[in-house]
Amino acid sequence: MTSESDTADDRPADRGAAEAERTGVFVAATDAQRRDAFAVRKAVFVDEQGVDEEIEWDEHDEPDAAATHFVAYDGGEAVGAARFRAAPVDADSAESTATELDAPTGKVERVAVASDRRGEGWGRRLMEAVEDLAREEGFARLTLHGQTRVRAFYERLGYVAHGEEFYEAGIPHVAMTKPLDVSHD
Questions:
Q1: Closest C-alpha to 71, from 117, 36, 19, 22
Q2: Under a CB-based contact definition with an 8 Å cutoff, are residues 25 and 126 in contact?
Q3: What does residue 172 show for φ and ψ, rounded to 5 degrees?
Q4: Is residue 65's pLDDT more than 70?
Q5: Which H, E and C letters describe 144-159, residue by residue?
Q6: In what order do the strands lie in the sheet with 160-168?
Q7: Residue 25 has pLDDT above 60, yes or no
Q8: Assuming Cys at both sites, which of 22, 107, 116, 159 could form a disulfide with 73, CB separation 3.0 to 4.6 Å?
Q9: pTM (2 decimals)?
Q10: Residue 7, exposed/middle/buried by CB under 10 A (0-12, 13-18, 19+)?
Q11: Which H or E run includes 179?
């Protein structure tokens, strides 16, 4: 899944045999990998779910943004994407606890799996990769806004819903959190 703006070096035919056979979840470290992740997001959120493109793309998608993008490949085909960044902490919020203010919290966003690849474990693999990186970077917990239709998926991964249902981009969501075991015994 690449865009027309690919350069000759980024086209799938020019990426080489190793890249064409790539399988797994990776940090999107190149422009081509970022475009692949964004193509999955566009297919899922914009084309399939009808999210306005102006809502889907934000400042955390800029090349210099403090966010990490992930892309899942199966045999070189991009099948999933996710985004991770530090969550802003509101020290003045009545809901903030001392633990939340002392321990960094990460935010998982834009988790997407191609419609024809769901049920194959790609969502779980994406979340494991995000959680592994978050632990490595010292985050004590993760938060996300999960679409209510996939709430059970996140609950199976240890996320706990809190608060009332709300709408983002016209889609019902619920806030969820998960503490991370950051011990390195």
A1: 36
A2: yes
A3: -65, 135
A4: yes
A5: EEEEHHHHHHHHHCCC
A6: 24-27, 67-74, 77-86, 105-113, 141-147, 171-179, 160-168
A7: yes
A8: 22
A9: 0.83
A10: exposed
A11: strand 171-179
Name the residue type at position 175.
Answer: A
**Looking at residue 88, what is its pLDDT?**
81
Confidence of residue 8 (pLDDT cuts 50, 70, 90): very low
Domains along the chain? 12-179 (3.40.630.30)
Q: How far is CA 138 from CA 25, 108, 121, 132, 141, in A?
A: 20, 15, 26, 10, 9
Q: Which amino acid belongs to residue 172? A: P
Sign of the Cα torsion 83, 41, 168, 119 reads negative
Mean pLDDT taken over the chain: 86
